[in-house]
Amino acid sequence: MSAPKDTAAPAIAPAKTGNVAGATGEPCEEFGAGPCSMVIFGASGDLARRKLMPSLYRLFRHKLLPDGFFVIGSSRTKYSDDTFRKEIYSALRSEAGFDELEWIEFAKKIFYSPVVYGDPASYSGLKKLLIEKDRAFSANGSCIFYLATPPSAYPEIVSSMGAYGLNDALKGWRRLVVEKPYGRDLESARDLSSIIYKNFSEESVYRIDHYLGKDTVQNIMMLRFANSIFEPIWNRRYVDHIQITVAETIGVEKRAGYYEQSGIVRDMFQNHMLQVLSIVAMEPPSIFESDLVSDERVKVMRALRPLSGADIKDSLVAGQYAGGESNGGVVKAYIEEDGVAPDSRTATFAALKVYIDNWRWQGVPIYMRSGKRMKSKFSQVKIQFRGIPHRMFRETIKTEIGPNALILRIQPDERVQLKFHTKSPGSRMCLRDVVMDFPYLEGYKGLALDAYERVLLDCMSGDKMLFVRSDGLELSWAFLAPAIEALEAKNDAAPDVHLYRAGTWGPAEADGFINRDGRRWGNYTGA
Ligand code: BG6
After folding, report:
1. What is the DSSP string of 176-212?
2. Most exposed of 18, 194, 234, 497 (fewest Cβ within 10 Å)?
3. Is 241 among the catalytic positions?
4. Measuring from atom 4 of ligand 1, which residue has the nearest CA?
């Protein structure tokens, strides 16, 4: 069967140009999408309950869902429409701003149809329901199929959809949203793509990386390319190094089954960390258009200096949390978590040093770090500039004059900060370290969308800017393969996985790793 095309243009929005800019501080006009519906596979699971349905509910409350929208949950669990609605109700009622009357209206858009993922015949009920509701709601035949199941079910679902003709839009369009992980290495990612491409075109495949949906990640592009003061210094001549940190305080929670197979490098680096890096390091495209922005992001992936298996120990520090204190309580070690092997070597922390071999970034080290059960939860990019070339105050000021830094805090307490030095007021020439601080939401009067709301809306309106293209995805797997293989090697060449106490900044070796280069991690413990 040939892959059907995603042909229909979104009804209202020019899909490829991103959000419409509002005047300073004014709400930005959100895109409206044409009529469509959504089928969530894995609807009885965690992602649907915690992220997808709450996001759809918030979009509904803010009147951002397209006309005719309805959602069908589907999974192996044999719910009726009503039992599924009750499940969703219990997940939503603790939401800030939850409103019983609004819920009654929203619930009218929710349906359910069970399937057995690998059995195409079991999709007949789903297809019938989709056709019936599409007519009733006038959704124009356009539908998003969201894979929110464990990834092992993706191939079966996509093949069954193909066998049952669910991928074929008689009118409107069909889009397939694929959650991470997209494969567990390059080969399995390609295998998954080849199954998908039998049933969907690349144009209609939306690979989610929710970090790209974060407003403050998108703001990195705006900051860089809507200002003329940053770009001239955004290169090897002025930047000493870059740090990207995604620190979490949670542990593995109830996801040990997945995490034991994944570990931090697959879970965070292959996707979120490298995507953030691609935005920080990319060249400006000639126009802010989906494919051109993706081209530039992919070029960064292509320019990453290959990690070499032989000296991986110089570029990578791995860790695993031991017991300790986190979020005000005593917490277990990773190996004591339910579902974790007592001799597990799975890394829950990694620090990686990478280089980008191109004109702009030659010789600038990029330190990336992510871990679970760390001292505080924050994600940020730190651009550390070079020190002053000449110490003309050396006789007057005895203290070291440190380099300037630009902090782009992605979450929480979203802000942009420029660290620099001034003179301390008074009669003497004394140095004062100061921070020019911009809280991201200050002065904004509109609605702030979270990452899932943003990517769901973009998928409805056919804007692929914030999704991962297959070439970028394959490059990221290929780049990390030596690190993953080394970590999983069962011989002496495997890098150590250092234990770190929960509630700390990771293993001491991660500090040694950056300190050896004469640099220090930038940490954040709260506003
Ligand atoms: C997910 C990872 O993709 O991102 C999780 O699978 C991680 O392990 C989460 O906790 C972090 O996302 P955020 O938005 O909370 O920083």
Report:
1. EEEPSP--SSHHHHHHHHHHHHTTS-GGGEEEE-TTT
2. 194
3. no
4. 268
**pLDDT-based confidence at residue 25 (cuts at 50, 70, 90):** low
4 Cα–ligand 1 center, Å: 33
pLDDT (tens digit per residue) in 37-81: 999 999 999 899 999 999 999 999 999 999 899 999 999 999 999
Please tell me the residue having the least CA distance from ligand 1 atom 9: 268
3-state secondary structure of 500: strand
The pLDDT, as a whole number, for residue 446 is 84
The whole model's pTM is what?
A: 0.91
pLDDT of 360-377, one tens digit each? 999 999 999 999 999 999
Among 363, 365, 358, residue whose Cα is nearest residue 384: 365
Closest atom, ligand 1, to C-alpha of 180:
3
Handedness of CA 205, 207, 210, 211 (dihedral sign): negative
Atom of ligand 1 nearest to the CA of 262: 6
Distance separating alpha carbons of residues 397 and 429, to the nearest angstrom: 7
pLDDT at residue 24, as a whole number: 57
Q: What is the pLDDT of residue 12?
A: 31
Taking the centre of ligand 1 as the mean of its atom positions, its distance from the CA of residue 129, in whole angstroms, is 33
Intra-chain end-to-end CA distance of the chain, in Å: 56
* 246 CA: nearest ligand 1 atom: 16
Instruction: Kindly state the greatest CA–CA separation across the chain.
Output: 85
Ligand 1 atom 13 nearest Cα: 211
Query: What does the alpha-carbon distance between residue 481 and residue 88 come to, in Å, rounded to a whole number?
Result: 39
Q: Which of 272, 390, 421, 498 is catalytic?
A: 272
> In the structure encoding, which two tokens stand for residue 143, read together?
């539908």
Tokens 């995805």 locate to 473
CA 192 to ligand 1 centroid distance, Å: 22
